[in-house]
Design brief:
Blueprint (H helix, E strand, L loop, with lengths): L1 H9 L4 E6 L2 E6 L4 H4 L26 E4 L6 E2 L10 E3 L3 H17 L8 H8 L24 E3 L9 H6 L9 E4 L6 E4 L15 H5 L5 E3 H9 L7 E7 L8 E7 L2 E6 L13 H5 L17
Parallel strand pairs: 1-5
Antiparallel strand pairs: 1-2, 3-4, 3-5, 6-9, 7-8, 10-11, 11-12
Helix pairs in contact: 3-4
């Protein structure tokens, strides 16, 4: 009791010892299994997990086996416990991940989702055995504003955009999951267009989207034209100059043109979030004139 009180006063947490794949690991109390394994960069696949959003346990691809648990548990949200024994790979875990990857891959377009092809190969997942085309590909792309495009044929209902727009960051509450079962989808209130909604065009939903369902119009147009090439792109971190807050920006540049703007998730100022000016107000940088100004030689 005395130790617990002293930790409460000092603001420190106790260490937790657990075993992960046969190795003893010591981490602070409150750490999730995923973070104890090394975070997002570890070998546990994640789709709906983001560094700035509280996990919703939506995609179920990060499931692991915990000794004594009747069911597999989501590593992205399950806190570690003293004496816990975790297996990140087993026949049961691998089969679950294979099925999740196949179900998702057969129902939505994951072509722009990082590492999915790698995971399909690793777990032997074959989404095509459920059909030649994803069931939601027929959804039309929503192009109702000049700044970003919504392609819900790529949406896995991870809730990250909903939470970024809602109480976790923006507090605009423009979008929510509408419908039930197979009819569940991301929608504005009464399914109105974005210009008719309360959207403030911060683009924080784009920042957290893991599948490309939400995309800068600039990227969407370049992909359609076949000119989008991330191999030729460079990134430069800078500070937004529109106000005095000092938000951190990452400029994505291709062929000497800014093609989109993001923000570092680990920034202590923005945590990956921006306003409409920081996210989309870069066009003036590229308003170059081919003619020399008066008086120039």
């Amino acid at each position: 009791m005395g130790d617990d009180l002293s930790r409460l006063v000092s603001g420190t947490t106790r260490d937790v010892r657990l075993t992960i794949d046969g190795a003893e690991v010591v981490v602070p109390e409150g750490t999730t299994i995923l973070d104890a394994c090394g975070g997002r960069g570890c070998d546990i696949p994640t789709l709906c997990y983001g560094e700035t959003i509280t996990p919703k346990n939506a995609c179920r691809v990060c499931m692991v086996e915990v000794e004594g648990s009747r069911v597999l548990v989501p590593s992205c949200s399950r806190p570690v416990e003293d004496g816990m024994t975790v297996r990140t790979r087993s026949e049961r875990v691998d089969h679950a991940r294979k099925m999740v990857l196949e179900f998702l891959g057969s129902s939505v377009d994951l072509s722009l989702t990082e590492r999915v092809d790698e995971w399909n190969a690793e777990y032997g997942a074959d989404p095509d055995r459920y059909g030649d085309r994803a069931a939601t590909v027929s959804q039309p792309v929503k192009v109702d504003n000049d700044l970003y495009v919504r392609d819900y044929a790529k949406c896995i209902l991870c809730y990250q955009c909903v939470d970024a727009c809602g109480e976790q960051w923006q507090n605009s509450f423009v979008i929510e999951i509408a419908g039930r079962g197979f009819d569940a989808h991301v929608s504005t209130e009464h399914d109105v267009s974005l210009p008719d909604s309360a959207c403030v065009y911060c683009g924080n939903c784009i920042q957290v989207c893991p599948t490309g369902a939400l995309m800068f119009t600039s990227e969407f147009d370049m992909r359609a034209a076949g000119t989008w090439d991330e191999q030729r792109q460079t990134t430069t971190d800078t500070v937004c100059g529109f106000c005095g807050v000092g938000c951190n920006l990452t400029l994505h540049v291709q062929d000497n043109e800014i093609v989109k703007v993001s923000s570092p998730p680990d920034s202590p100022i923005t945590h990956g979030n921006l306003c409409i000016k920081g996210r989309f107000g870069y066009q003036h940088v590229q308003n170059r004139s081919d003619r020399a100004s008066p008086g120039s030689s």
